[in-house]
Design brief:
binds 2-phosphoglycolic acid, 12 helices, 255 residues, TIM Barrel, eight-stranded parallel beta barrel
């Protein structure tokens, strides 16, 4: 299918950065720069900044996301936030399975699946992150690793629910390191993910599933990555904290 028929989504992942006041300021800077975007624009921010982000993006083309959610609806999980809580606050997107969560906070393929389930049940759109470690790429098992991550996360997800899932391929070695996958490497894995969606759900579903690339995408390399046939946008960390850089990536995706 013609890539033009798929949505392109540029999402910022702010990680553990910005206070509420800084959130308002950064969004106010981004707003005018992306107002004519021909792609979807999302900013995923720390929980504590969600209300400021929702307020600052009111009436704009910028959508707001959280960076994680718990799998239970409520209960004895000190320090956690449920998908239902995010929904109740008016948050439409949530990042799940980011490699920093998997590496530092014990998220596993199974808890990523459970968080995905909870988010879909709450009516959120999930940005599902997958990606291999450097040693796995060196051992030539990238596609096996990524296929397993995607397959487990989508366990029990219906074809209709798949409309609410964006998959972000983020090679772990490229996140926050300044190393970027080449456009060919990014496209190869993104295509592999699309092929897997085709195996699991059929061609129609595969053709419309948004598969992003993430990992040191910036103003300089975005265009080359985004013009690949299977790269439908980006999940942007560092560069999403600078309005001009984030806007340049949105502009590259709008071409
Ligand atoms: P980076 O982060 O752009 O800073 O590499 C990407 C991400 O963590 O989603």
């Amino acid at each position: 299918m013609d890539k033009q028929l798929r949505k392109v989504v540029i999402a910022g992942n702010w990680k553990m950065n910005k206070t509420p006041a800084q959130t308002t300021a950064l969004i106010n800077e981004i707003k005018p720069l992306v107002k004519d975007a021909k792609c979807d624009v999302v900013v995923c921010v720390p929980y504590i900044d969600l209300f400021a982000a929702l307020e600052a993006t009111k009436g704009t083309n910028i959508k707001v996301g959280a960076e994680n959610c718990h799998w239970a609806k409520s209960g004895a999980f000190t320090g956690e936030i449920s998908a239902d809580m995010l929904k109740a606050c008016g948050v439409p997107y949530v990042v799940i399975g980011h490699s920093e969560r998997r590496t530092y906070f014990g998220d596993t393929d199974v808890t990523v699946r459970d968080r995905t389930r909870a988010a879909l049940d709450a009516g959120l759109t999930v940005i599902l992150c997958v990606g291999e470690y450097l040693e796995q790429r060196q051992q030539n098992i990238t596609m096996e690793v990524v296929r397993q991550q995607v397959k487990i996360a989508l366990n029990g997800v219906s074809e209709q629910e798949l409309d609410n899932i964006i998959i972000a391929y983020e090679p772990v070695w490229a996140i926050g390191t300044g190393l970027t996958a080449t456009a060919q490497q990014a496209n190869e894995v993104n295509k592999g993910i699309r092929d897997l969606i085709c195996e699991l759900y059929g061609k129609t579903a595969a053709d419309k599933t948004v598969v992003q690339y993430g990992g040191s995408m910036n103003a300089a390399n975005a265009q080359e990555l985004l013009k690949q046939p299977d790269v439908d946008g980006g999940l942007i960390g560092g560069a999403s904290l600078k309005a001009a850089d984030f806007a340049a990536i949105v502009a590259a995706a709008s071409k």
